[in-house]
Specification:
The complex is a heterodimer of chains A (569) and B (291). Helix content of chain A is 35%, strand content 23%. By secondary structure, chain A is of the alpha+beta class. Chain A is globular, with a radius of gyration of 28 Å. Helices cover 40% and strands 20% of the residues of chain B. Classes of the chains: A alpha+beta (569), B alpha/beta (291).
Amino acid sequence: MQTEIAKTNFRYFFISEKFENPLIESVIKESDLVNFLNETIHTCQEDYILLFKDTCFFPLNMADMIQQCIKKANDEFGEGSWAIIGNYGLEFLSEKILKYKTDSQTAIIPSGSPYPRFASYLDGDVILLNIKNIRKNNIAFPPVKIDLRSSDIFLILLCEAYKNNLICAIDSKLYAKDIDERKKIAHQENDYLAEYWRNNYINNSIKTISGTIEIENDLNYLKQNAIDKRADFYENIRSAIFNIYREREKKTIFILIRTRLNRPNQIRRLLDSIEIANAYYRENINIAVILSVNNYTVTNPEMNISELKKTYKDISFLSFVLNEPFEYFPRVSAIKGALKLITESKNNFIWIVDDDDFIYPDAFAHIPFFLNDKSIFLGNSFAFKEKWDKDSDTTFPIESKKKMLFDTSLYYNFANGNNPVPMCSIIFPAQTLKNIFNKYALKGDYYEDYALFILAQKNINVNHYPILIAGISYHGLSQTMNTNVDKWNSSYATFISEIVNCQIIDEWTENFINEQKNEIAQKNQIIADTKRELHAIKISLQWRIPNFFYRLYVNHIQTLFVKKIENRK
Amino acid sequence: MLTVFCSISEKEIKQATAWLIPSLEKQKNIEKINLYLINYSGTNSLNVAKKNHGIVSVEEISNKKKMGFGEAHNFAFKKILPKNHFLIINPDVYLNKNCISKMIETIQSDQTIGIVEARQMPFEHPKEYNKKTKETPWASGFGMLINSAFFKKVNGFDEKFWMYCEDVDLSWRAWINDYRIIYNPLATAYHFTGIYSRYRNDRYYLEQFWSARNFLYLAYKFFGNDGADRGIKIFESTNYPKNFKNAVMQSFQELKITTTDDFFNKNKKKILSLNTKIKITGFNLYHETRN
């Protein structure tokens, strides 16, 4: 049901293609927004409209920022391919809230977006509408009799845009300061939105910035011989994204396999998985393999490269063999040498895997659309405890047990000295790795994965997507987490020294982290105290304390708890 | 010569072309494979020309109507009448090169084997199997080699399932008819099932609905009215929302009206004696789980 909420007023700019004198035209009420939009889409002569809450403050160079925002979107998606850019919303697939504004609830200054990110939800604080694309595709707001909230209006507009293969995105160029002191109200289901949703989509929930809206949708699409023309909302978004990239130049992903050519069955499993991916997804992306042989001292390798090339004839192969018999740091040199084989950097990406890893072919349903020269792609991986039969030529383990999921969403924990990210979960832009090898000596071994990933973050953002991209043969946890001093060596110290001296963690970040650590310690203390007290309650229940005394006791504990929290503020 | 059935619609033809057919082509120790793509959608043709891919000859067959999984395979079986044994396989499967020969080796080793199941990779199905005899309570329909004599004897799949769980039903009827179900862990195939990569929680998938409906049907068919009541209790205790539960229950009740519990009464003694094989261990669970 529609809840009683405080209404918002909007201001708007009309912006022409020439970006001359964008003027604030007027103020409109939230209740007039639908009519305004429908009328404007049909009648206005300009190309874009910027709509924003009247509590928003923009930078003085806002006109430039809008121009840059439009340019970024045009460069990324193509001029005719997008409909809406906002400053606050939910990113598609990662489901991450991207918030490019400062308001009464958020003081933290956000990190900017090097390119607009696909939105599955947009809040209505600052919205840039590409009117010419919206008009061209005959997008109109469905007729509405009731008073809708702006968040509902923009959600429906986003749905209509995606239906027409127009992209909606979030970008930091639309940053604003919002002085609205009202608390954000959770997005709630209302009758109109629910009806719109039920008529158009089969999904039973919508993810928004303030939680999930559950919609009791009909389930006819699941029944025998059902004919249901409704779409899957998120599949609709994926298809719109797919559509824009189909027309563009294909990206190339180089799967760089570090191998000593001494695990033939495992490497064949990996190549099988690449071949399977290539067979299905070659229309979306070019997949090439670089075999980087990192141990010249293996004089009698158990397999040869030409044999592999012959077996996997549909895979495009490059290979690099260390040619210095006493080359130091073969793991690092193998990557460095392989990089030289990639001459062009634009639109090229590198996925470093070990020869006993394998990739998930279905990951390529998403990877091509989310790879970007300006960011590192981070996925999840799954480790298996495996037993292989060395005497047979089988390309699968005779035993394989699920060990653990490497959820790499907390990748930034590297700052605490941990290595939560296996190398095969990362896909680097080729230029990023080339820059690292040009700039840093990287003398050392066995911690190069950790060092490369951290050094890459000096100049480029990491985008994590919760999709499974690789499988790992589990050999134990990363050694950076190992507390056994005997297992440490100078490689770790060497790489960390590089990382320290390139100031990957600058001083203010370090201060910020330390401050957070204190807060976490305090919270942990409160949790520990509460657990103790709850334990006491449990015991009291076992003693069957009469109800009255029990309530008295609980009240007492609650009072103590509240006081403790207040004292610590 | 081996007969292979794969039920497929237009949407899945790319999977079959990219994965299944090339992996069939690479099978070792197999002279010839006849792959029949069963068009279960009943509408447009799959536009698969009758063609040879190495050892594999591909042909589309259709009954010109929409068919469930069991109905599609029953139709194919009656039309082709495969001798000895035949393979049922999903289109999103890539078989390792020795997969089929290992399955054939097993089924030929003993006439009492009704079905041989392959091992799914990379996520192996965690269901129990006897390490020595390789017997398992049921075989997954993603990839099963079926003894033709057994399939004919039991009249194939129960078409009332429409989709999902008909493989459990077929396996249980194998045990009842003194055939065995064997798991061969050396016959491996990659299966890119949606559970690990594609399923989201903002909608329901056919697998969720039909597995739940057929969980109730299996409980009723093999354990009678008491079984159905127990199944309903287990289903009611799941976290599915009310409208999902109502839709499943409605579908089950509609099916139940058209079904008598004769099967249970006729086979009661045998079913009870096979309690290590024919069992429900939880919602949608028909086995003990391996660690």
